[in-house]
Amino acid sequence: MALAIFDLDNTLLGGDSDHAWGEFLVEQGLVNPDYHRRQNDEFYRQYCEGGLDIDAYLGFALAPLAGKTVQELIPLHAAFMASHIQPMMLPKAAALVEQHRQAGDTLMIITATNDFVTGPIARALGIAVLLGSQAEVVDGRYTGKPTGLPCFQHGKVTRLEQWMAANNATLNGSYFYSDSHNDLPLLSEVDHPVAVDPDERLAAVASEKGWPIISLRD
Questions:
Q1: In terms of CB atoms within 10 Å, which of 66, 93, 124, 183 comes out highest?
Q2: pTM for the whole structure
Q3: Which secondary structure element, helix H or strand E, spans residue 132, and what is its range?
Q4: Per the residue annotation, which of 9, 16, 105, 115 is the catalytic one?
Q5: Nearest-angstrom CA–CA distance, 87 and 81
Q6: What distance in Å separates the CA atoms of residue 156 and residue 132, rounded to the nearest whole number?
């Protein structure tokens, strides 16, 4: 049973759920609008350019959750799914996931975006295994801080290795689909790396190495 691993933002989704959550918080009046939008945009620019300080970003992204219970945030996230995530859903992405499901592969999303934002999205996509950056919860409440190793760049490789060790899995026959040059460390580890609507840097590497380049959007 091979691993079929998918990045989430701008791969299975036609947009970035992390950045969209920040926009949603602004629209809902739950954060300082000017500051939050400015910081959200700046962190996203850093991510696209490959210079993101993931620890600083997670601290920023998770701060609005501080003190909230898991239960009280469920309706808020449901509203976010309806307004921002459903329009990002891609029929071709759903078909690709189903193709691997029918092949008997183990489906996994691996994403730098925190598990509060991405958990319901993974469930909507029918993917049970999610490795994401972790939002700390203590006594049923979010602390507003991250915990554990961020699932970003080389951290994705480490988190996947930990999961495989715990689940007696290997990378034999594995696939990884991603849009971002930030995922080159993991793309270089799997048997079947696939660039999906790639950014410029990933497109160049994929062309040089002969990796497939596909689109889930056209």
A1: 183
A2: 0.96
A3: strand 129-138
A4: 9
A5: 9
A6: 8
Our answer to whether residue 7 is catalytic in this structure is yes
95 closest CA partner among 6, 203, 199, 182: 6
Strands 106-114 and 129-138: parallel
Helices 17-27, 54-62: axis angle to 10 degrees equals 30
Please name the residues in contact with 214: beta carbons below 8 A apart, sequence gap of 6 or more.
Answer: 194, 195, 196, 197
DSSP annotation of 89: B
Kindly report the CATH class assigned to 3-214. alpha beta
Catalytic residue among 7, 16, 18, 179: 7
Residue 1 in this model has a pLDDT that exceeds 90:
no
Taking only the tens place, the pLDDT of each residue in 102-151 is 999 999 999 999 999 999 999 999 999 999 999 999 999 999 999 999 99
Decide if 115 is catalytic.
no
What are 34-72's pLDDT values in tens digits? 999 999 999 999 999 999 999 999 999 999 999 999 999
